């Protein structure tokens, strides 16, 4: 046996050393997703996996460049006639993948389709401020809004343009299974639960796509995606955990691509019920939490601490409103002043949130004298309780928020405005500021309003920002790609080295 | 015999209706999917609008009766999330689960039965001492862990088998082994017990006394008689394998109904979950029914006591 052991070790090691040369010369890019796309009709779903695939099949009215600036795509230019009327001039050289031209009629059809309640698009709320849309010239479309709405363009970044004639001809179900867009890739094959194969659109107006084919595979298990990446079965792991990212750091054939996103990890503190109704208790909680320890120990450094409940990737971020410092002694003193030492709190959570972070916060709060019970429920129940009466929403809840609009309006309005379902806090001065920022078209004034709004949130502490989350992708070393804060997955911006 | 079949089919229909009713109320009472579908910044009005369009604002009993009505017309409805007919979604996944279940049954039978027979024939000897830990491991290793170990060894380290996916025969091997391990252990234990039971019967002694060789006795008589309880277990195991496939399909990215069920439960895609449960219940009940009938065919005494 002793003599056979080296042979066994050699047999186990050789395949590692002789694995085929990866990526170089490959014509197909293979991406492992955590889920299959739910739909490929871009107006039906906007979950990350669906969006990752169909955004390469379709063009949108406007888009963001790598710096996050809103730039033309189907719309070549735009201007406001008045605060509720905006005119878009369209490009003339765009063709759908079936050869027909993309016209103003397609843009109007796309907007009317997604804003029609009977179409049942979950995205309706993002475009609900649009009152009407008309063709006002051969390449011109005019939008009329119900009220002035500053984040309109940020929302239109998510509006894909679909071909009117084709959709009307084949119907919604057929369009969902066999979509046609004007983007750099066309759908070749969709095997539900297995893979989606895209082929390059050679006639794409925006240039030659970098890979002849792209395959998106449905691989739900984190460990299996990692194994696929290691064996060369996949070129990109679209959703890597911080622990797996640390694990591949030693593999010379692989690399981690990560970027800070607009997604903000936060702690909701119920200002309308129980011991946390007292602002002193809320401040004590804010001072008991060590953000840096959470980031370094539990997120392996793949996050950045934030001072407010918004990230620098969003408009409205202000750097000079301070975070409550980590100071357990001061936190304990505040609790004593509020006669709240030993108070019992409920920490509502679901499997969608990092359990380790929940437990770390529980321990940190326990250290300053609060008794925290974790109440874990499934995600739909979690959402139902969070939006329901304050008494059922828990005293604390972890959150990971992204409006996919990179604007403070999409974060602090729904979280803290008294008219929002998620808010368990009411402050008329705060409401007035965020309402004004929503309807003002003057960026300077909006920024000033948000500055004042964040100062109020700092004082009242109905929640605190914990960290700016990172998007983490595992990839072959030869892949050249710079991920962006809006987590867009544009294959057009990738290359083999 | 006909009376027995009619009675069993009637019982099966009631069981399936019961399962569907329980699943319907459990799913609906734990929250509808509207909040999962809308963007986080949707207003109360917008959420109410979508909830109304999806029909979740109707009384639960009305929704339940509408569901049963559709089901009686053999209409499984349309997926809330995928926006495709549920029947089409299910039909695209069933062949993969059938393939995997068959693969697991082959693994379980090919390894489990000889292992069980060997443990009985060499009871108390070194053969049994070697085989018992293997059977125990098959029985006690959770599939989410054994699956990852298999991927690591045969996919990553040795590079012999694909780490995920459903293309080709080689992709079927690891999921079949992972899924079949528990059934293999069950078969081995049952086979051992059945064989030991048969080996102690008088007819074995009588056959040996007539001068038949031990091998001939085992092959001609003992194995045949020991097969009767195994048939029942095998039929019941088909249902268990489908339930176990939920984990295995997720680990190996195998696109069967287990993986579909996991995703649909997370999305609260009610009609898809209900259709998966309906399918698994029908398979479970039908396989039990077939086992009962096969048993009745093999053993005439059963026919007399419906």
Descriptive overview:
The complex is a heterodimer of chains A (497) and B (306). By secondary structure, chain A is α+β, with helices and mostly antiparallel strands. Chain A has 3 domains: 25-57 and 168-259 and 471-496, 3-Layer(aba) Sandwich (D-Maltodextrin-Binding Protein, domain 2); 62-164, Dipeptide-binding Protein, domain 1, CATH 3.90.76; 261-470, Roll (Dipeptide-binding Protein, domain 3), CATH 3.10.105. Chain A contains 16 helices and 19 strands. In chain A, the strands form 4 sheets. In chain A, strands 1, 8, 9, 10, 11, 12, 13, 14, 15, 16 and 17 form an 11-stranded mixed beta sheet that branches. In chain A, strands 4-5-7-6 form a 4-stranded antiparallel beta sheet, covered by helices on one side. In chain A, a hairpin with a 2-residue loop joins strand 4 and strand 5 (85-90). The longest helix of chain A is centred in the last third of the chain and has 18 residues, at 443-460. Chain A starts with a helix and ends with a strand. Chain B is an all-alpha fold and 306 residues long. Helices cover 79% and strands 0% of the residues of chain B. The radius of gyration of chain B is 24 Å and the shape is flat. In chain B, helix 7 (143-157) packs across helix 8 (170-199), helix 7 packs across helix 10 and helix 10 (214-251) runs antiparallel to helix 12 (270-298). In chain B, 40% of the residues are buried. Chain B is built from 13 helices and no strands. Chain B has helices at residues 2-29, 34-37, 44-54, 60-72, 86-121, 126-140, 143-157, 170-199, 202-209, 214-251, 257-267, 270-298, 300-303. Chain B has 2 domains: 2-72, no CATH class; 91-298, MetI-like fold. Chains A and B meet through helix 1, helix 6, helix 7, helix 13 and helix 14 of A and helix 2, helix 3, helix 5, helix 7 and helix 11 of B.
